[in-house]
Structures are given as structure tokens and as C-alpha cells.
């Protein structure tokens, strides 16, 4: 659906890269390698997004790094659209509704780094989780968001540095 609004696949991939997790940053060559595209097509889109103020650039030695502009007035809107596009809102809703006493929901793996490989790795923490429901829930979520979902359950909290925190009961997120 979002592909009909954003017709450039490169632009969409860049928006996913930088807006699924605002901490993600990269440089031109790294993006070209990651996306398997020419530096020219990526440079064009980076320049367009930077001129629009959606991305910011920082010099790091002799490389220019790009990152989402969290001060842009539409930052939250773009982030929410990207997360909806990836199905993260439905994923979170299903987990919180049916998995028991959830303490944290943390994205890990490629998606947390902004790479939409079609697989979403999620760690769910809590002391009383409905682990018998996990297989059914994974399949249901996969059908809803059209991506493979790997759910891992843990009874101990995970530090926020290990992925993108979607929900944390203690922190009120």
C-alpha cells in the first residue's frame, strides 16, 4: 500500500532504514552495499530527503553519515507510518492482548537495524507468559503482517541496548 504513495523503492528503503529506529545511521557506501544498489541512486534520494529536512547529515572523518531528523515536525508521523507499513503496530497489539503479563517487547535482528528482510525477530519478556499460545500467535501475526515472525520468550528483563524497545511496562513506553 505504501508503495503506491512512495514510488521510489530506494526512498522507501531509506525511510524504513532511518525511521523504524531513529538511532540508525549510515553512510552512502554502506547503504549501497546493504541495498545492493548504485551509489548514484542512493545519493539522489539521500539528497532529496536531506533537502526536505527529513534526514540530517553529519561528518564523520571523511564520511558523511545520515540519520532521521528527530526534530522534523513530521518525524513522529513518518515513524508511525513506517511502523504501520511493517506491521509493528499489529504485532505489538497481538502480543499485549494475548501473551499474559508482558513486561517488554523488543525488536532485534535486521528489522531493528532498519533492514526489511521479511523477518521480524521479537523478544517478549515477562514472568507469567502464555508460552503455549506462542506458536498460534506467531502464525496469526505472520498472516496479518505478511512477514515471518520469530518470537522468543524470556523471564528476565533485557537492556534497551539489545534492540528497539516497542513496549516496556516499567518505563511506561
UniProtKB/TrEMBL annotation:
The keyword Transcription applies. GO terms for molecular function: DNA-binding transcription factor activity. The keyword Zinc does not apply. Residues 20-58 form the HTH deoR-type domain. InterPro entries: DeoR_HTH, WH_DNA-bd_sf. Keywords: Transcription, Transcription regulation. This is Transcriptional regulator.
Amino acid at each position: 500500500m505504501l508503495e503506491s504513495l512512495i514510488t521510489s523503492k530506494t526512498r522507501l528503503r531509506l525511510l524504513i532504514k532511518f525511521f523504524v529506529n531513529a538511532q540508525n545511521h549510515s553512510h552512502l557506501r554502506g547503504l549501497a552495499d546493504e541495498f545492493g544498489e548504485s551509489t548514484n541512486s542512493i545519493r539522489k534520494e539521500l539528497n532529496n530527503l536531506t533537502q526536505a529536512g527529513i534526514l540530517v547529515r553529519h561528518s564523520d572523518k571523511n564520511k558523511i553519515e545520515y540519520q532521521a531528523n528527530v526534530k522534523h515536525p513530521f518525524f513522529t508521523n513518518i515513524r508511525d507510518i513506517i511502523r504501520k507499513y511493517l506491521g509493528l503496530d499489529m504485532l505489538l497489539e497481538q502480543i499485549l492482548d494475548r501473551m499474559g503479563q508482558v513486561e517488554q517487547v523488543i525488536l532485534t535482528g535486521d528489522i531493528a537495524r532498519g533492514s526489511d528482510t521479511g523477518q521480524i525477530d521479537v523478544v517478549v519478556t515477562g514472568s507469567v507468559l502464555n508460552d503455549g499460545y506462542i506458536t498460534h500467535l506467531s502464525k496469526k501475526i505472520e498472516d496479518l503482517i505478511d512477514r515471518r515472525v520469530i518470537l522468543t520468550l524470556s523471564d528476565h528483563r533485557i537492556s534497551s541496548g539489545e534492540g528497539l524497545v516497542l513496549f516496556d511496562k516499567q518505563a511506561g513506553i
